[in-house]
Design brief:
This protein is an all-alpha fold and 165 residues long. Helices cover 88% and strands 0% of the residues.
Length: 165
């Protein structure tokens, strides 16, 4: 049984590496654009993401057991609404709707950190030891928060530069 668990862990680790590579390639254009506006935004977004992530994780860990699991259906509905909003904005191209969807995505992602953390704790209590996929859930939450913060901070920096001219 141990050799099978090791093999599954190695395979899952390969999938996680592939996911990280794809997310990095997908983020490269955003990072290039943010660097062209102001390179310090990346550090600010990373530090802010780390603080937000740790804060919401600790909130979920210290909250009453299973008290955040009700968020699952609400967050799924909110994601569906965000998808519809984003698809509609592809046709209408309203900048304020695009920025609103980024703020909404940030809020949803922060709530997903709490939901996923409590879900992982409950799965562990029920005997699910798949730490690799549990970490993937939280990694995706972290990346989404980081990207949303970079977009928000870049937009604010561009508006500040325009007002100074």
């Amino acid at each position: 049984k141990q050799w099978y668990q090791r093999r599954v862990a190695i395979t899952a680790g390969g999938y996680v590496s592939g996911l990280a590579c794809c997310l990095g390639l997908e983020s490269s254009y955003l990072l290039d654009y943010v660097i062209s506006v102001d390179p310090s935004i990346i550090v600010t977004a990373f530090v802010t993401t780390s603080v937000v992530f740790v804060s919401f994780t600790l909130t979920a860990l210290y909250a009453e057991r299973r008290s955040m699991l009700f968020l699952g259906s609400l967050l799924s509905t909110a994601l569906s609404g965000l998808l519809i909003l984003s698809l509609a904005n592809m046709f209408f191209r309203v900048p304020s709707i695009a920025l609103f969807s980024v703020y909404l995505s940030l809020i949803i992602s922060c709530l997903f950190v709490m939901y996923d953390t409590q879900l992982i704790v409950e799965k562990k209590r029920l005997g699910d030891n798949d730490f690799i996929w549990h970490s993937v859930d939280l990694f995706i939450d972290f990346v989404i928060i980081f990207k949303d913060l970079m977009i928000i901070l870049t937009d604010k920096e561009k508006k500040k530069r325009r007002s100074n001219k």
